[in-house]
Design brief:
With about 160 residues, the protein is an alpha+beta fold. Helices cover about 30% and strands about 25% of the residues.
Amino acid sequence: MAASISVDGGKSFLIKKNKKMYDLMIIDFPDPTNELLASLYSRELFEEFYHLLNEDGLLVCQSNALDATPPVFWSIGLTLEQAGFHTKQYHTIIPSFGDWGFQLAAKKEITLKFQKIEVPHRTLPRELTTLFAFPPAYEEYKNKAIINSESNLKLHEIFRMENI
């Protein structure tokens, strides 16, 4: 039997019932295809995550297909920053999904120091710093980024415009 929780139920748990602090938060929300799902990427919910994260903790948030919806990607990063996080953006090719973007966020400034990976892997580059480099064509979309907030939910509209 599979358990299911509504978006509002999940937000209620995070905001009202949860009293734990986290060292690592991995956010894999669905794409913001409608207003309800766009509310998961709001400044207000990200502020709640900020308060649940330990001082040295990290948060990573999937941020959509960068090659399909670059304004959505940059908007999620900008919204995290408006919630108080320091961010670093990265992307990688995910087989069957394309060039997928992620936001790395923390309460403190993020420094990129990598150790050599000694395990077999198929999708990571030899030099991890390349994950944090973006072609100029992607960088140009930063100026289209918006802050997604409960009073200004627009991420779903941007998502739909980019997928036309």
